[in-house]
Structures are given as structure tokens and as C-alpha cells.
């Protein structure tokens, strides 16, 4: 399945320009990532399917007449008698059908992501942002002054992660302002403006705490990375 394209070429250029402008007054490096999703959530889909199958077995145990009567009407001959083996086979069939049906339903992505509990979405996005930061940003600048702005579209989550030289100097509430500006635009469906708003809030923080040094070079790409 092809990944949706959330931003135009013009949006990409606007974000790149915002990053480049923000870095003019700072030795900090801003990395921007826009992800379609932060995880496949296969384990969550399997858990829901298993739960539905288990509930079906519970209903079968409480009211077996429904499924047994349905089986008799659809398949069995007149005068059919139930054996323990046939009852167990019926239970296996019901559980398998319910499991497979629930798994197929979750192939529809809006339903799948609606069914993912919010704490799990938050945890997975945070974990993916940290991995992306460690791979592409952390310790990759001379003074450890990298900062990552990460948006995960399907989960409706975002993260701001800073390297040691910045994180140790800035109160967490400062990043909350940038996050508030980012989320305000995202709620209106303006993804590019959301990223630019966060960059605009981060820029003065970087300029204040890691001002641009003589001979400073651009160590990380300014372009938005879509994954």
C-alpha cells in the first residue's frame, strides 16, 4: 500500500526555508520528520482478534443452542446428534471465523487506528521519535545541538526531542509552547504550517542558548524527511 503524500513540493520548500532561516542565528541544527505512522500495530490487531474469538467462545459456552441450532439448520441432516468431538470442532470453527473476521476488518486503516488505545499510540510515537533522533540527529553535530521535530499523522501525535547541549539548558515548558503552536495548526489540518510554527518557536530558544559561532557549518540537512 502506497504511503499517502501529505505535503506538496511547495510545502517542502517552505519548511526547508524555515529551518534554514532558524539556523542563521544559532549553531543548533533542526531536523524535521513527517511520518505516515510510527508503527504497524500488528500486535494490537492480533490482540483485538483474539479477544473477539475469546468472547465468541464465552457466548458459545453460555448459550450453545444458538450456534448448534445454526449449524443444524445450515449443514446437519435431520436427526443429527451432537458428539463431544463435534462440539469442540464447532467451538474451534466459531473462534477461527471470529478471529479471521476481526483481523480482516482491521485492514481498513481508519478502523484499525481508531481501535488502538491512546496510551499505546502515544508510547509508540514517542519510541519511534527517539529512534529517529538517535539515528539521524543525536551526537551528529559538533556541539550536540541537534533538535528533532517529529509528526506522526495517523496517530495524531507529535514529539520534540533535543540533544544534550540544548536539553540541559532549556526547561521542559519551553518545548510545550512549541508543541502547542504545532498542535494548534495540525487541528486545523495545516500540516506544513504546523511544522513551520514549531520551527518558529524553537528558533529563538536555540539562538539564546546555542548562538551561532564563527565558522559554523550546516551539519544536518534542512529538508523535511517524509517516512
From TrEMBL:
User: What are the UniProt keywords, alphabetically?
Assistant: Membrane, Transmembrane, Transmembrane helix
Location of the TPM domain: 142-202
**Domain of life where this protein originates:** Bacteria
- InterPro entries linked to this entry: TPM_dom
- Give one Pfam hit by family name: TPM_phosphatase
- Keyword Transmembrane helix in record: yes
Which residues span the membrane? 45-67, 87-108
Q: Which PANTHER family match?
A: BLL7265 PROTEIN, UPF0603 PROTEIN YGCG
This one is known as Membrane protein
Organism, by scientific name, is Novosphingobium barchaimii LL02
Amino acid at each position: 500500500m502506497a504511503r499517502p503524500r501529505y505535503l506538496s513540493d511547495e510545502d517542502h520548500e517552505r519548511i526547508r526555508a524555515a529551518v534554514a532561516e532558524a539556523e542563521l542565528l544559532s549553531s543548533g541544527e533542526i531536523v524535521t520528520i513527517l511520518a505516515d505512522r510510527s508503527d504497524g500495530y500488528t500486535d494490537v490487531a492480533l490482540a483485538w482478534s483474539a479477544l473477539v474469538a475469546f468472547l465468541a467462545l464465552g457466548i458459545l459456552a453460555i448459550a450453545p443452542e444458538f450456534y448448534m441450532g445454526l449449524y443444524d439448520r445450515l449443514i446437519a441432516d435431520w436427526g443429527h446428534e451432537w458428539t463431544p468431538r463435534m462440539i469442540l470442532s464447532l467451538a474451534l470453527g466459531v473462534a477461527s471465523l471470529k478471529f479471521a473476521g476481526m483481523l480482516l476488518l482491521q485492514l481498513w486503516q481508519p478502523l484499525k487506528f481508531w481501535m488502538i488505545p491512546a496510551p499505546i499510540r502515544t508510547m509508540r510515537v514517542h519510541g519511534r521519535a527517539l529512534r529517529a533522533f538517535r539515528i539521524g540527529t543525536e551526537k551528529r553535530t559538533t556541539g550536540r545541538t541537534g533538535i528533532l521535530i517529529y509528526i506522526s499523522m495517523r496517530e495524531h501525535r507529535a514529539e520534540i526531542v533535543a540533544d544534550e547541549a540544548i536539553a540541559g539548558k532549556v526547561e521542559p515548558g519551553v518545548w510545550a509552547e512549541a508543541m502547542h503552536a504545532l498542535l494548534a495548526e495540525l487541528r486545523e489540518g495545516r500540516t506544513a504550517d504546523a511544522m513551520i510554527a514549531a520551527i518558529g518557536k524553537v528558533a529563538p530558544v536555540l539562538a539564546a542558548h546555542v548562538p551561532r559561532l564563527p565558522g559554523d557549518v550546516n551539519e544536518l540537512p534542512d529538508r523535511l524527511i517524509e517516512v
